[in-house]
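Notebook entry, cofactor series.
This is the third protein in the set we're modelling with a bound small molecule. For this one the ligand is adenosine-5'-diphosphate. I'm keeping the input format identical across the series so the outputs can be compared line by line later. Sequence and SMILES below, as received.
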Amino acid sequence: MWMRWNNPRGEVEFDRVEFGYVPGQPVLRSASFQVEPGEFVAIAGSSGSGKSTLLNWVPRFYDVTGGAVIVDGCDVRDLRLGALRKPIGFVGQDNY
Ligand SMILES: Nc1ncnc2c1ncn2[C@@H]1O[C@H](COP(=O)(O)OP(=O)(O)O)[C@@H](O)[C@H]1O
Ligand SMILES: [Mg+2]
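Returned structure with ligand:
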């Protein structure tokens, strides 16, 4: 049963997120922060520090291996993929 995501407000919460591309090699452990609707956030860090990885979890290009990414109070894994991605704008660093 999919959760509905009507009228997205844009709150994004990372709740004790854990992730690794390779099993047993975590890239991130227990990361938590919250972005309020309308808030602009810049994530700064050196190349390879995990900025893109972090963003990939919101539209579910990758799924976290622990914790949860929550939009407007709803775990992204509980939303139909189309409904989740529809209100998200994404400009990647590699353009085609
Ligand atoms: N698809 C992938 N498979 C395995 N490792 C990856 C993949 N994408 C990124 N990584 C690794 O994860 C780390 C974080 O990368 P990334 O999120 O792209 O950093 P940034 O965007 O901050 O430059 C790096 O060590 C990178 O090599
Ligand atoms: Mg990047």
